[in-house]
Predict the 3D structure of the following.
Amino acid sequence: MDTKTLLAETKARFSHNAAKAYLKEKYDGKFLIAEQGGLWRAEPNIISFLNSGKSKTVILQDTFNNPVKVDRKSLSAKLQETYDNVMEEWYKEWQELESKR
């Protein structure tokens, strides 16, 4: 390989990694939702925790570390919906990026 080819490949790889980082930043904020008096991040661990309980309500710390009493099933459903929608959008854009590679 000559120097020009190596430089072109390096620039393409850097550009691809920068685009992936941009996508992560773009979608990271979309996981946050305000619900039931708190600010929540739609993540698998909190969704699983909410789905594992049996009580109607639970007291959780929101993203600001404030204790908030929430309806377990309602919050779980909203977080799951948000997580699914954001991940679907992110995945579509990621697939487009990967296909250009």
User: Anything to note?
Assistant: The two ends are 19 Å apart (CA to CA). The mean pLDDT is 88. Helices lie at 3-28, 44-52, 72-100.
